[in-house]
Amino acid sequence: MAHSKLVALASTALLSLVATVPVSATPQMIKQAKDAGIPAQNCQYCHTVAVPKKEGFKPEDLNERGKWLLSEKDKQKAKEVKAEWLKNYPGGK
Which of 33, 44, 50, 93 is a plausible cystine mate for 38, CB 3.0–4.6 Å? Predict the structure, then answer.
């Protein structure tokens, strides 16, 4: 009985942790964007801050392009944002 409570508690804690990290932007996304022909030079291509932090992420820290990517993630029901979606960004380069 104690084992099942521990497993349930651990599962709940893990799910809570995953739910608090809605975006997983990484430096590799800049490389993927460049490889796709997108003129991204740094994190500020999608973020308002120069070096965004995963912990403490707020959607307000995204610029219009970043907010659009986040909405695309929801629209496509994807687990992660994909840099290649930037080709479809309606706001221009």
Answer: 33
Contact indicator for 24, 54 with CB cutoff of 8 Å: yes
* Residue-wise pLDDT tens digits, 40-91: 999 999 999 888 887 888 889 999 999 999 999 999 999 999 999 999 999 8
Residue with tokens 């932090």: 53
The model scores a pTM over 0.85: no
DSSP 26-69: -HHHHHHHHHTT----SGGGTBSSSS--STT--GGGB-HHHHHH
